[in-house]
Amino acid sequence: MTEVLTKRKTLLEARDLHVQFASRGRKARAVDGVNLAVGEGEIVALVGESGCGKTTLARTLLGLERPTSGQVLYGGAGLDYGSRALKAYRREVQLVLQDPTGSLNPRHTVYEAVAEGPRIHGLANEEEIVRDALSRAGLRPPERFFLRYPHELSGGQRQRVVIAGALALAPRLLVADEPVASLDASVRGEILALLLRLREELGLSALVVTHDLGLAWNIADRVAVMYLGRIVESGPVEQVLTAPRHPYTQALLSVLPESPEPVVLTGEPPDPTRVPGGCRFHPRCQVLGVGRAAEVGVDGKCKGEPLAVLPAVPEPQVACHYAAATGS
């Protein structure tokens, strides 16, 4: 897997990305030094708890937020924030939101919803584009759905309409924010299978933002685990999810049904206005809490020595003093 990934040409990249917001008189470091790359034809899962910064990172990669510092690159070139350049960019990098009901205008038919993008970009052969996009999204025969309204569709069908709206612009990359979170379990597998099929048929790349490591296992080539504005572990999905090295990744995996024993994290949920010194995870770290970090002499480092920002490489990597000391 790693050998294959190293040969993929990078399509979208975050390079030392920082995004800050003012919050109650303090600065919230929503994205606090991130390097992340998505290759051509690659699916990368960005995983973490709510509030870890993954949605802000996704919005910044889409050009919806401007970075405080650092850079977004597409095809090797820095993102141009001029209105004309952003319009062209967003045709090639499309967003798929988690809530299809909220994404679709209840007063617009399916045809109008899918045709909106082609109309904005002045594309010819509108009806042919809409028909092809609906068909690729699994709504067949497409004409049967043209005059339907969102309330007349199932949740899975609405999500397929949202995906069809993205496909209508022939993008090269999808940014899918919790694409199956609002769907029944029986429908989730169908939507994930659809995303995989689109990758095979169209060569689409995707960044899938999720809190669900089970979803990452089923769809991604690589996974990046994010905590408090920074990626703390990344690598090929099989290696990260079968042998997680960061205590936070281990805790996330422990809630899956097949896990023998859940890890209960201590402390408060992360606050991006108060990033702890040392390892940002140390106030909640189960390894530090039970004394295992002290046993190998890194407890002081965990509490006081910052970790380097991980680079955007395909090989497995982790930002953890304990993992570095033990080789785990």
TrEMBL record:
Gene Ontology biological-process annotations: peptide transport; transmembrane transport
Q: What's one Pfam family the UniProt record gives for this protein?
A: oligo_HPY
GO MF annotation: an example: ATP hydrolysis activity
Question: Known CDD domains for this protein?
Answer: ABC_NikE_OppD_transporters
Q: Where is the ABC transporter domain?
A: 12-253
Q: Which UniProt keywords apply?
A: ATP-binding, Nucleotide-binding, Transport
Question: Which SMART domains does this entry report, sorted A to Z?
Answer: AAA
| Family as reported in the entry's similarity comment | Belongs to the ABC transporter superfamily.
Q: Which PANTHER family match?
A: D,D-DIPEPTIDE TRANSPORT ATP-BINDING PROTEIN DDPF-RELATED, TRANSPORT ATP-BINDING PROTEIN
The protein's name in its UniProt record: Peptide/nickel transport system ATP-binding protein
Species whose genome carries this gene: Nonomuraea soli
